[in-house]
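Ticket #4471: structure export looks truncated?
Reporter: QA, pipeline team
Priority: medium

Steps to reproduce: submit the single chain below to the structure queue and open the exported record.
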Amino acid sequence: MDAPFDCLPAAPGPVTPAPYSAPPPQRETRPARPRWRRWAWAAIIAALALTLSRLPWHAPPQQVVPPRDAATPDAPANPARAPRNPATMGTARGKAQAALAATLERVDALVRRDAERWARADMHALEAHVAAGEKAYREARYDDARARYAQADDLVAALEARVPALTTALVERGELALAQGDSAAAAASFERALTIDPGHAAARDGRARAATLDQVLALLGQAAGNERRGDVDKALAAYREALAIDAAATGAASAIQRIERAQRGDAFRDSLGRALGALAGGDFAAARKALARAAGLDATNPELIAAQAHLERAEKAARIERALARGEAATRNERWADAVTHYEQVLGDDASLTAVRTALDTARARARLDAELGRVLAAPQKLVDDDAHAAASRLLARARRIAAPGERLSAQLARLEHALALARTPVAVRLRSDGLTAVRIEGVGELGSFAAHTLRLRPGRYVARGTRDGHAAVRVEFELAPGSAATEVSVICRDAARPVTE
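Actual output as written to the record:
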């Protein structure tokens, strides 16, 4: 059985009926008022509508005047009961009907909102106003009837103004019952709120939550028990199921956040521990991978930031150590270009290492020297040129000033020295001719006519010329490579000279 609404907030001020209205009835001691009054109001409204439809419109009711005794003197007419103009009476009657129709429509809305329950005394006063207006209407006192209907309309407006506060109080009571786990009380409060205001969104939502409250509370209980036993996976599943049923389930969202936060914390500590272990073992790739997992869980954690900095320092030190070792090995093996690359890598990580900078300067100088020696030794035949021979000689002298030349440089110097010597060592040349041809070698001199002639010349490029009377001159080029064996060259004028024509 529904409880009365006496605990709900009252209207802002007393609603006072007209002085001659019926007094409100005394509050009953029974827990609830019977529902028959709603039907009574419906019957009243229907009866009034039927009555209005049957009353005549064309003329007011006539007064019954007793026959006047002939001996009785004429009495002055009573102004209050003097007949009224039919047109005026019709207008007043129409206004009264319109006022009643408007009032009854609003009264019907209040009845549907169960106002008999939350405004019993005011509804009784409203009933009295309507009844008094009906009585006046039947007696053709249309102005009085309209005044009564206006009073009833004012009372209806006052009751309608109370609806928002009543609905809010019921919704708050329902929400309190939800928080206390009382699904029945919550459902009753929300149902009553919807009776007063069927479109109230919060009441509809509350009624839906009340319908699933017992199921949600059971799931929350299961989840809490699983959490206490340490079965967080089952606890999470139950909390999530409760939240899926009721998105506002008390404590479900915070419990999920708490468990997930704890899980993230455990996963973070595990990843961080793995990272530090890998770092201690020098496995930087595994350490970086583990730190990336930890960063995905708590990127701003100070321990993570410290571990990341430690990893950076360790990787940097390892890079420096590897590059320095490779640079030193390249230096020992006189692979100067490689040494330059490795020392530059070291200084790229730490430019403050002055010893490495000195080593880099040495490696760069030796790399340049090594490149120059390589170019000269790759084409020793060019040393026959005086300028090239002089430049190579200066290069040899500069290289000999290195205190500890090393095996590679020593071999290069020996090869260069030998190449320079060969470039100045004469090579045997055997010249063949016919004894008639005069032979001359440019840059050397006239050799005359001969059948065979041998001489020694420095390596280089030469031109031999042969002349003979009546024959065309010949020109023979030949090259003597440094260190080559004896070279044979034939210089013979064989072709007759062409006659000169004028």
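Status: closed, not a bug. The export was complete when the record was re-opened. Leaving a note from the reviewer for reference: Residues 1-36, 52-82 have pLDDT under 50 and may be disordered.
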